[in-house]
Amino acid sequence: MSCLTTVLVVVVKLSLPAPIKNTELRNEFWLRKTYAQPIYDLVVGGDSRIYRGVSTYAINEELSPQLEAINLGYSSAGYNQEYLDFLVGRLSPTGNKILVLGVSPHSFTLEGAKNELYHKHLDKGSFDLFKGLYLSKYLKHFAPYKASELKDYLFNGSAQEVYFEDFQDDGWVHSYRLPEDSLTAIDIYRKLFTDYQVSDTLISNFLVQVAEIEASGIEIVAFRPPTFDMMTDLENSLSGYSESYMWKEMELRGCTWIDLDPSEFHTYDGSHLHFESAQKLSRIIGRQVKFLLDSKQ
Amino acid sequence: MIFNSIEFLLFAISFFLLWPFLGKRQLTRWAFITGASFFFYGWWDWRFLFLILASGLIDYFCALAIENRPKKRKLFFVLSLVGNLGALSVFKYSKFFATVLEDGFAQFNYQIDLVEKIPEFALILPVGISFYTFQSLSYTIDVYRGRLKATRNILHFFSYLSMFPQLVAGPIIRAKDFLAQLNRYRITNAIEKWNAIKMIAFGLFQKMVIADNLSLFIDSAFEGKSGFDGTGYWWLVMVAFSFQIYADFSGYSLIARGLSKYMGYHFRMNFNHPYLSKSLREFWTRWHISLSTWFRDYVYIALGGSQRGVVMGLIVLAITMMLSGLWHGAKYTFLMWAAIHVVLLIFERLTKWTRLFRKSPLLIPIIFIQATVAWVYFRAENMDQGHGIVKKLFTYNGSELEFSRVYFDSIFFLGLAILIEVMVYFRKNYTQIKIWYWRSNLDIVLVSLAIISILFLRGEGKQFIYFQF
């Protein structure tokens, strides 16, 4: 029996490509973020549009010398004191101290402020941590497949519907989706902003904290993550978020705001940037950071 | 610590490596089982070990006192009942009872605030409290009834009570079956080991491949995240839930039985393909057998069973089922689930309608549908949600099939679960298939396929559903 099982395991491993989503790598990815050390010159924060939309490798392409940088975005992350403290706490006390914040409307809703994914990983027990951080390099070889994935491999030779995610060491998720559908996220966000509006309290608290962070010598670079036109319109009309207000208020507190034209980027689901657009956005951020660093000198 | 985790794998490997050395001598065996089981339970939350200890100590000493002081045996028996049911009431039912009282007073326009006053620790439900409490209770009841001699060794008792394979989610083993088994060390032969491995592999397959892959489909429906709402959709969700809860719990029981078998012990079967039943009465002889027989022996028969006439028999049946519902959880929905079974069981008993069609295989889906509709309340967050889903099941509300594309993965595993039960049905009912199955040594292939599926097709690891009870 053990021989038969071993042979079958080897046959399966050799005949199938790697699973589209490796749950073990995903787990390790989130834990590495959550337990990142305070060694970075540049930290990126925000929600899923940020961890899919900003590659610190691409930011560094614009910089010389390169910075120690990490993307600490989480799904549905919201800007409350705890999350901002977490981001600031990962900056090296002796480094350049640059905080890049993706400021999307959802980050100021009560739903976002729960920071559920961050807490899910922060609250893990010590064995789960050990497993995620040190055993995943072995366990990743046994990451499960989806039945639909196998069906596509068997009958069509390759996956027909792909939600590709490649978890990068810098906290960025290189992602795309086939077939693309810019309307996928629209209904979800319509429902979301019907249930949860942007909270004025969260925004005013955020602005107070931003001022404090700037006062402590940390440079903040902020922008509204570009997304599909319809999504931007929907957010502008339903969420209660005002980009111009945020832009003005953040600049008043000493932040650098990057004005982006959403039509220059493209999303695969109406919300998240295709990896090529993510790299493009990251290079724009990189140039802004370079400008900041040069002007400091 | 849950069976489908790396930490349990490491724990089990360590345990079975040490077992041949520490299992041979009686005292070290009991100490080893108790120590390992406490470690297993304490991994979740060591503070609640004190609850098992307290519950066990009460029953251990009460059972001794029942034997040693015959004149005061009733007093010690009541003490044991109060201790066990008291702990259960505090940790499992305090919020429910407080809510019931609040609701009751509210009917008379009198507002009281009891839930707020419950201490925080009493709101945490210790894993497996219903299982080990019932197990501990059965010990003192059997000693009180004179069917079992109380053990003099406290480690012997605790190795029975805390035995890790069944500690947190059953099967509920009886002291009179198991204390005697614990007296000896058995060297398991190759066939027993093979059977143990088979049970563990099939149990993990049921849990990790079937139940876990169905959960996304079901959870998104009950959390209102799916966006689908048609009649066909809800029927499929409920059929999926029927198989999820079956695979989840039956899987756990199989793993528990396999682990104990590997140690040389025997736990009775806890699930026997309940969805192949041809009556609801039969369903209850195949579903969670250790709990059903517990209620049968200690509640139904104790209250007179069917010996006191038809009407009393039905009343006792209703009481037993409602208590069983309450055992599962302190919510109105569990009572509703039990009430549906009461109504259907009484109807079945009075009309004997299932006997008219006994030979027809059509009875199987009919009984399955009854169980499935009752499961709505078992899974529902509250009564309103349960009523809403039942309404959707029985009112035509479109026949969109788009959900089958979105949830292809879950539906695939639902199909697989149904296929397995159909194959079991044919194997049980057609001798030629049975003979062919045994002759072709299919077990080896099936265990290998189960292991491959666990490795490459497992769903997102979820806790066992029955841990919450």
Describe this structure in words.
The complex is a heterodimer of chains A (297) and B (469). By secondary structure, chain A is of the alpha/beta class. Chain A is 51% helix and 11% strand. Chain A has one domain: Rossmann fold (3-Layer(aba) Sandwich), CATH 3.40.50.1110. Chain A is built from 14 helices and 7 strands. In chain A, strands 2-1-3-6-7 form a 5-stranded parallel β-sheet, with helices on both faces. Chain B is mostly helical and 469 residues long. Chain B has 2 domains: 180 residues, no CATH class; 199 residues, no CATH class. Chain B has 20 helices and no strands. Chain B starts with 5 loop residues before the first helix and ends in a 12-residue tail after the last helix. The model of chain B has no long low-confidence stretch (mean pLDDT 91). The chains are: A alpha/beta (297), B mainly alpha (469).
Structural class of chain A: alpha/beta
Strand count, sense and barrel status of the largest sheet of chain B are:
none
Written as H for each helix and E for each strand, in order along the chain, the element string of chain A is HHEHHEHEHHHHEEHHEHHEH
The profile of the biggest β sheet of chain A is: 5 strands, parallel
- Look at the structure and give the mean pLDDT of chain A: 90
Q: What are the segments of chain B in which pLDDT stays under 50 over at least 5 consecutive residues?
A: none
For CATH, the homologous superfamily of chain A is named as: SGNH hydrolase
Content of β-strand of chain B: under 5%
Helices of chain B, by number, come to: 20
Radius of gyration of chain B: 23 Å
**The CATH C-level class name of chain A:** Alpha Beta
**What is the mean predicted local confidence, pLDDT of chain B?**
91
Task: Work out the helicity level of chain A.
Answer: 40-55%
Largest interface: A-B, 20 and 22 residues
